[in-house]
Amino acid sequence: MRTERMAHILIGLAVGTLLTGSVAAEEGKVGEGWRLHVINAESRFEAAGVLDVNRDGKLDIVCGGFWYEAPTWKKHFLRDIKEEGEYHYDFANLAMDVDGDGWTDTVGAAWHDKMVYWVRNPGKAGGPWPVYQIDTPGNMETALAYDINGDGQLDILPNIMSAAAWYEFHRDPSAPQGVRWQKHVLPQEAAGHGIGAGDVNGDGLCDIVTPKGWLQQNPDGSWTWRSEFELGYAGIPILVHDVDGDGNPDILWGLGHNYGVFWLQQTRDADGNRSWTKHLIDDSWSQPHFMLLADLTGNRRLELVTGKRHRAHNGNDPGGNDPVCVYYYSFDRSSGQWTRHTLHEGGRVGFGINTVAVDIDGDGDIDVVAPGKSGLYLFENLIK
What we know:
By secondary structure, this protein is an all-beta fold. The chain has one helix and 31 strands. It has a five-stranded antiparallel sheet, with no helix packed on it. It has a four-stranded antiparallel sheet with strand order 2-31-30-29, with no helix packed on it. Strand 10 and strand 11 (116-119) form a beta hairpin. It is globular, with a radius of gyration of 20 Å. InterPro entries: FG-GAP, Integrin_alpha_N. Keywords: Signal. This is VCBS repeat-containing protein. It comes from Anaerobaca lacustris.
């Protein structure tokens, strides 16, 4: 179904091996049902991807200028990445085989050089991964992968502050690197801090959600602007999900540089007119810059997974120097209440700007890979 393809897809291959990375001895509390592995406590990169780098059937981790080989998480050089202050020119690592050669590549975006790019996996040849520019549309905090046009292939939706666009690609032997990229400019209303995608109105088409409203995709591929809500300085992504099970997609988001995780409940009257009601989930911690949906408990319902981005603005945000934390939230549809569950709090483990939930060890449950300025960590799911 097209609606299934619209979800923010976190791709993983099933593998049959146990994790043997070092178990964390970090200070702080690890939540019940989880085992914390320190992949690299010295890493300062904020974006991670999970992919089978060397095609050995095991899922590896790509983070910044390195990849970490499963199951021992041996560190390998991948490429040089520029630094500027506390930041790196590496704000996303989206896993996909761009050029169709059977080796999984990554697609990224960066704030400082304003570039959307892809990084080619050299495969058996080895060596540094070459970087190919796609576009330089402006400052970006990260990029997301959705099937926006419903053709069954993931597209790239960067969070461009000054202008909005999405990118599709097609394999073409006559094009440079065998890939042809096509840019689609979106209405200016979609620009700003925060973006996401999903089927907001239930018509089977992928819409785009912004802090100031949403873009309705029409059957001909054009867009209609709907200024129906105001989310504030939202994190990325803004999620579309039917929280309460009434058949109407709702919206979840965090204030990426302030306090607050929220959901926006969609209801419709007898004539089909939409209305939106804002609900607070948690405002006890700040900088929920990235979030995702995943079935962590195996109950076939999606939980909201998020955490504090460590020093998002170098400690200058409200609560910017408070302890980091990682939580997931479950919603009880009968009571209408959220329950917070701890993955980690009180230590060094936070959430960056491109975190991944995937069954990395192939044991049938969903694990969480958490990069950030305070290190790269893996939460092994033991709930089952």
